[in-house]
Write a structure and sequence with these properties.
The structure is a homotetramer. By secondary structure, chain A is an alpha/beta fold. The first copy, chain A, has helices at about 15-25, 40-50, 60-65, 80-90, 105-120, 130-140, 165-170, 175, 180-190, 205-210, 280-285, 285-300, 310-330, 335-340, and strands spanning about 5-10, 30-35, 55, 70-75, 95, 120-125, 150-155, 195-200, 215-225, 230-235, 240-250, 250-255, 265-270, 270-275, 335. Chain A has a 7-stranded mixed sheet. A 6-stranded parallel sheet of chain A has the order 3-2-1-4-5-6, with helices on both faces. A two-stranded antiparallel sheet of chain A has the order 13-14. In chain A, strand 1, helix 1 and strand 2 form a beta-alpha-beta unit. In chain A, helix 1 runs parallel beside helix 2, helix 6 packs parallel to helix 9 (about 180-190) and helix 9 packs across helix 13 (about 310-330). The interface between A and B is medium-sized, with 35 and 35 residues. Strand 12 (about 250-255) of chain B pairs antiparallel with strand 13 of chain D.
């Protein structure tokens, strides 16, 4: 494949599809977005135009049957992911799939088995692993800068809740929001979680409660290696997007601060202040979206293992299900209670 | 009592007794330490000499029977507290008692009933409430600066574990260390805890485990008003004494940083660095020890309610017992499971 | 010009030429780099290839005579700037010229008069004005956040000196390094400087002294509006690229911190540390290079005034000459002593 | 003198006299304030009462003739210092004298010669040398943490100007305010200044200008060892007392931040903020006032050299005079132009 740009088809022209299209068009010389499909054809057209994508495909089948396409990005709504993964895998396309793969472990497993059978690359869109801050924390753990990890605290708060319409189909806070933190926890510690205890409540908006979801949650993860981690989630931090992590180890600790639009400090007669942190996930994680696609393109182009595999996507969902069960039953839940049927995946 | 310094007897000339003796001698013009007793008479003599305390008493009875003494500070080992509280109360002395009052709720209740009967003032030594940082957080909550509290995270880590000999009699991490954080949690939120979930392990020193204790713990508090709080404890943070808190509320968040011996930042060819935080609790909490005694002296002198009462001392112990039970039974424990027999206290 | 991308020719394929070529190719949809020339033809070829530039031109004349080209970027060595500006102006091309325009006021004035005559746009490459931090400071001044400015302190230190060969032809620290800070000072305060006092020495490398230059300098600017500013320059700060500014005003102060590759803080048994700041000007000022070209393209496309004009380029050189004179004569020098012959420029 | 507390007489019961009286009474077990005098006898009485000082003396002569007194603190107005120093020296008392010794070099020299003749200890009240932050910077320089110093920047701004009545007799900004920074500069670098260039203006209050003084100043110090330092002074920083220093050296840099009443950070919907820094010099420098008296008491008690001698007091005044001359003549002034007659002092 050397010497030729990786030809990529994009399925889904929504918020994240746009981000990836722009990355492929302007930031990754090694890849080229060549087709895009969306049930909203106008949306696909607009993204195509903005990013010089040659073809607006009729649908995902149109993309999967295009022999010139090497790989597909699945950026459509969650409930279509598993089906599209299978369709793409059968067509022999390498796959980058947004998180979560699905809310049903059965559907995830069927999709991943199809991927395994096809022998294609499969990467899940846990972009935060590629953020420079979290990558720095992971490096500190690997290099032993802080010794053996003991306690971890992840803060992950959104500036504002999504629309209630989204909350109704999102699978709940643990599957649509905490899922990123579940993956982050495993990534940073480099080990598997044994049990989960989840507390939570509706503190931000009663409508979220009526929709059957929580908006405030605190999750405790017990890792097999003994690390105890907490995840602190809120759907609304008025000061903006709050994304931090802190690990205590036997030789020290590492903690990350939020990212800011500038480094200016203003001193007034009232207080010492700075501007609010970057508020939107696209701004906060700009470079991580580029890095994750670069990693995917590299894995495909040079036939290397992907950075975030199907099993990572599955485990994060298992954790989400365990957290929900823990919250409902008010007790710690072992992951194996939820995930007993995990299939053999490469 | 106006115009006359409050005459104070000190029982116990150990580490904390010394701190209080010096405070009374040099920092609180309104009070005067007039007698001190300790089973180690030489220790008492030395503290007396350093601080100009006129009399080294034979024992606590000697102090309690001294009609010139208005109030006593109980700074002896925990297992003597309850007995001494009763002795002092019967003698009509106002009482400042170090934490915890006792490990047994029965003994605590008997002591507090004696206090109630005697009508004397009784303050428990939760000095951290008087720390400027935590006081600032409490003020933010009270003044509504951050709106309605939703999530809280308390970090409380010691620079090094106490001797194993102490750990064997300390009552365990939840009663000797987390107890401060239990009180802090109630103080900052201004509400009562309903249930506790505790996870933990032995990660610092296996000897601590052999002594039947933990050295690393993560406690989740569910408040009646819906706040969810975590307490992150370690007996050993190599970088020093780590004492922080963070609260998310509906209108904002407040977080405190550690205290440092200086504000200097050194930039080298390797990194940007600063000196380690204040390492010893006496240095970190210097002013809080002064402020808590000032508050006690004020309460006695002007017949005002004490800032930290007997019930606060009792509840912190209930929380410690609930945390231990939760850890052992691997489930959240309601405080009422442990504290059902709580007596009526003023 | 609407609907068509601005067609740009690049003269110079060195360090800064590469930066601009990449910006035009991948970051600015409104512009297109269509030709590049360099005396080192291989360098030009490589930049052309990496950035999809269609044509490697023979020389600047080849570019200036290309009727399809709307604007040129002059990224060649300083001593060629003035000549190229005149060549491009005569050809009716809009011009973006790297700083400094020249070291000779006479040559600058002749070049700018040619620009004026041609009626083309002319922007000087003071990219730092477009940095988010300094832009935030400027906004604070304009919006009155800090009231009326009184004192300013600019820190501008390089991580390492340039090669001695460069220093010999650079025009000296005041013209090759401080020149950026001279422009920054004018930009932030929004007023003109009346006099300059410069102190300095050779503290980093005696070879720099032998080459007739300084490596450490402290410059005091007296503005007409009364602001007093200092510029603190060093050719070598071992901890990296140090670029900060601080302004005190009647209602407050604003200060910017450096930019870091990540927001992680590591606590060890030795100290609390973070990684070094971004070390290379291309990393530190990445976005400012994009923004300045966007501003240039906008100015040309929509026929608006440029953000940094020829007069700004001239004044910065006047200030550099005044600083050198001050250093040599050990006295404050009025700008009019140096710049008396300033021509009328639009 | 071992075993006996150093007996101290205080001359002056104003603002700084009160601070020292309290320090001697409550913070320094090795010393005892035994007498105090002030032209305002009621002020002296009150300070005596608050601090348990046995005797209110009639005047300075009364104190100097008291054979039981070992040392005197001169805390009266500046114009009385020199006379009182001579009186105390002749009486054989060790002397701690507030800054400045006098505004006249002639009077300073006569006073210091009397001190020399008497062979008594003489310490000048440059308390900031004892501040933990500046002491940390000095330690970094001495220990070579930052290599050889090259550039220094001192920020020293008051929260509000003193009364105009004080400004009229203060000797001007360079002698009443910058004088602290002149001493700080010499202390931190550990070398002498060769020349001074001072710029400044009236930016805060025109009344200050009418009184013949400046309220905003920028001073450049050229040290003999090549270090170039700037001092940035304002009589009014609305955000509070701003006291910082930053040194660049060949191996790194060190910078100090201001001191704050607490370490709390509040995040709101508007910004991220913290409370203003400590606003009052007594709060900011509390510990330095204790440390400087401890150092004085130690020097006297153990017959060691004082930390800040008469020559330090003299040089700071020379620098103040040179700064004024530089400002008036708009040129750098060599210290020897002003200080040529410096006498031989131990």
């Amino acid at each position: 494949m050397t010497g030729k740009k990786l030809q990529i088809g994009i399925i889904g022209a929504g918020r994240i599809g746009k981000v990836h299209a722009e990355t492929l068009a302007f930031r990754l010389p090694e890849a080229e977005p060549v087709a895009i499909a969306d049930v909203n054809r106008d949306a696909a057209k607009e993204v195509a135009k903005r990013n010089g994508i040659a073809r607006v495909a009729a649908d995902s089948a149109d993309i999967c049957s295009d022999a010139s396409i090497d790989a597909v990005l699945i950026c459509s709504p969650t409930d279509t992911h598993a089906e599209l993964v299978m369709q793409a895998a059968r067509a022999g396309k390498h796959i980058f799939c947004e998180k979560p793969i699905d809310h049903s472990l059965g559907k995830i497993d069927r999709a991943l088995q199809e991927v395994k059978k096809a022998g294609v690359k499969f990467q899940v869109g846990f972009n935060r692993r590629f953020d420079v801050n979290f990558a720095r924390v992971r490096a500190a753990v690997i290099q032993g800068e802080i010794g053996i990890p003991q306690l971890m605290h992840i803060v992950s708060r959104d500036p504002a809740p999504p629309p209630i319409s989204y909350i109704k189909i999102s699978g709940g806070i643990f599957l649509d929001m905490t899922i990123h933190d579940f993956d982050m926890a495993r990534f940073l510690i480099g080990d598997e979680v044994e049990s989960i205890y989840a507390a939570g409540g509706v503190r931000v908006d009663p409508e979220i409660g009526k929709a059957g979801d929580l908006d405030t949650a605190l999750v405790v993860l017990q890792f097999k290696n003994g690390v105890i981690a907490t995840i602190d989630n809120s759907r609304k931090a008025v000061y903006g997007y709050d994304q931090r992590v802190e690990i205590l180890g036997s030789k020290g600790a590492i903690a990350t601060e939020n990212c800011y639009p500038n480094q200016a400090i203003v001193s007034t007669a009232t207080n010492i202040q700075r501007d609010l942190p970057l508020n939107f996930f696209v701004d906060r994680y700009t470079n991580s979206f580029i890095s994750e696609l670069r990693a995917f393109v590299d894995a495909v182009t040079h036939d290397r293992p992907v950075a975030v595999g199907g099993i990572d996507g599955r485990i994060a969902v298992v954790m989400g299900l365990a957290a929900r069960k823990s919250f409902e039953e008010r007790r710690p839940v072992l992951l194996q209670e939820v995930a007993q049927s995990a299939p053999q995946l490469a």
